[in-house]
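Handout, page 2. Input:
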Amino acid sequence: MEHTIKIEGGATFVVSTDEDTLLRGALRAGIGMPHECSVGGCGACRFDLVEGDTETLWAEAPGLSERDRKRGKRLACQCRPLGDCTIRVRCADEYKPAIPPRRGLARLEGRRQLTADMCEFSLRTEWPAEFLAGQYALLYPPGTEGTRAYSMANRPNADGLWQFVIRRVPGGRGSNALFDQVAIGDEIPFDGPYGHAYLRDGIEREIVCIAGGSGLAPMLSVTRGALARPDAPPVHFFDGVRTTADLCGEAMLGAGLLGGGRLSYTPVLSAPGASPDWRGATGFVHEHIERVLPHPLERYEFYFAGPPPMIDAVQTLLLHQHQVPYQQIHFDRFV
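Output:
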């Protein structure tokens, strides 16, 4: 069944109610509805329902505050229409999808252990893996409600190969289902690509990639994409983990990229006490950046991904302490 959605004072689009939320329907129609995480965590897709009715998929989604709920705000990524609707939301060209997201099934072709709690998942679709380095896709793990957002770690390709670095989260139903219930050869529903923190074209500034935990995946993709360009500027890769047991970024980048002279890789341990033989950088990864980069920070293009406290700390460092222009800062916010 399909319902027609009218944006007050703006465009009209159609939502397929059996599979799409308001947000995904808008993005598939090429409409720039505000969004970041697409899974209820960030709150960027808040809207007002002017006419009609919707069902809410995740009533407790953290993207809405209690104040938002009292004011009647809803999340477009968590709402399905129950009929034709009119909504109020401020759209912008910057949110228009660079590549229209596509739904389908993806087959698990491989699962490679990287650390004690992280694996590389290789999925294959029947269509080309068209995305921009740094974007993410939505997966539907079996036996769980809703979707989970995971960033691609590889580069776009015509072979339909989508690779993800996924951390098993203690008590996390989505990640545990992917680790324990999906066998090689199984198919899972797939939807993508999404995201704004993708590698920009035509930028001559040196690139800084900052990865925290499983935020490693999109930074691998950005780095691989950047260094595949013959005229790419140097890339400075900072890998923030707790202990040496969590390190896998250098091995995944490989000698081919590290040996080319255009990439520097710096691991930073936040819990060095568990790694007594460690002689490298320690502390919070964002604190190390300003100590070692040779130029003022406003001269770089920044990409970063990781847990929310790291995202907030990097923003504070760049925007408030060093006045880096906002257009040089790229990240997607997740729960």
